[in-house]
Specification:
The chain has a domain of 89 residues. Helix content is 32%, strand content 24%. It is built from eight helices and 16 strands. The strands form five sheets. It has a six-stranded mixed sheet. The longest helix has 41 residues. The radius of gyration is 22 Å and the shape is globular. The two termini are 36 Å apart.
Length: 342
């Protein structure tokens, strides 16, 4: 949502307040996206004004809306620590905040009072043909350094300033990585435990602030086990693993292509490139994901749905028009389509 805060409140600093025109433009942009794409379930990050967002989505047909936290008010009207939220056209039958396992956190070398940088919401939604489905919305710790140079009024030489900045960046960035990776690990442990008890299908979506293949978050897609009997592994592992919706969509499309008449399948061998969801300078990356349990995997024998389409909405990033996109968001929006299997 990129700082969704209703004026006259300010985000982070007292002068950062939307004008009436800017606020109207921001709300209009969100409304137009919802009208055009009509998602049934949608997760939000960077929400300050939860009641305002609840009212906005209600007008678009989302009767169900949940949050599990509220932003922090620094000084009357200055806000920090935005929260995540979820809206649904289908009934939300239960909402809970995910609580990290303190004993496990200690085992991992973390503080026993470890907490997520943004509280994670778990909403159980009554999805047609599927029943109760646990939907998790996250906004993992960013890559921004956790450390900065202390303003101790000590005059530093240019070299000393560079050295201190370098130390803060290296140590602070690694600290952010530890926090982000730990959040993903403790969340995954909670999801596995919940799955064992409820047997509900799982959907995990949000801003991961990291690619899934660089090691910090790759364990979210763990699908193999060492030193376990293949019989037991194959029988149960798939039930507790998550799959990237992008991969499931490509697999479904490949399966359809393999069933097509070869002469009419000229595009079968063309590689599809995944669209980035975030741009920083000249670089780009995929930071926003939707991960799904086996009920949405067309390759799983008991699955009910398959991912039939995957879209990243990025017009506001690659071809922005100020009047239309001036108060939009700094991320691409990932949207998937789930289709009942015949």
């Amino acid at each position: 949502m990129f700082n969704y805060l209703e004026p006259p409140n300010a985000f982070y600093e007292f002068e950062r307040i939307y004008s009436a025109e800017q606020w109207h433009k921001k709300q209009s942009w969100i409304t137009e996206y919802l009208r055009e794409h009509q998602p049934d379930i949608i997760g939000f990050q960077e929400v300050f004004s939860t009641e305002s967002l609840k009212a906005l989505v209600f007008e678009q047909g989302y009767e169900y809306f949940s949050v599990v936290d509220q932003p922090v008010v620094i000084d009357d009207f200055i806000y920090k620590s935005p929260v995540v939220a979820i809206a649904s056209r289908f009934p939300i039958v239960d909402t809970q905040a995910v609580t990290p396992d303190s004993a496990l956190a200690q085992t991992l070398g973390l503080a026993d009072d470890f907490s997520f940088s943004r509280q994670i919401v778990r909403a159980t939604i009554d999805v047609p043909h599927l029943g109760p489905c646990d939907c998790y919305v996250v906004h993992f710790k960013s890559k921004r350094s956790m450390l900065g140079i202390e303003d101790d009024k000590v005059k530093r030489s240019p070299e000393k300033n560079i050295i201190d900045s370098l130390k803060a960046q290296v140590a602070g960035s690694w600290g952010s990585s530890i926090q982000r990776g730990s959040e993903a690990t403790l969340l995954m442990m909670s999801m596995i435990g919940r799955r064992e008890v409820s047997n509900n299908p799982m959907i995990l979506m949000g801003d991961f602030n990291n690619t899934l293949n660089d090691g910090i978050l790759s364990h979210l897609l763990t699908s193999t086990l060492r030193f376990v009997s293949p019989i037991d592994r194959d029988a149960y592992l798939a039930k507790y693993c998550l799959n990237d919706a992008w991969d499931l969509c490509q697999m479904a499309l490949t399966n359809e292509s393999s069933q097509a008449i070869e002469s009419n399948n000229d595009n079968a061998d063309k590689k599809v490139t995944r669209t980035p969801t975030h741009y920083f300078g000249a670089s780009s990356s995929v930071l926003d994901y939707i991960l799904l349990s086996c009920e949405f995997d067309a390759g799983y024998h008991d699955s009910l749905y398959q991912v039939s389409d995957y879209n990243t909405y990025d017009r506001h990033l690659i071809n922005p028009i100020f009047e239309r996109d001036g108060e939009s968001t700094d991320h691409g929006i990932v949207l998937i389509t789930l289709t009942l299997r015949s």
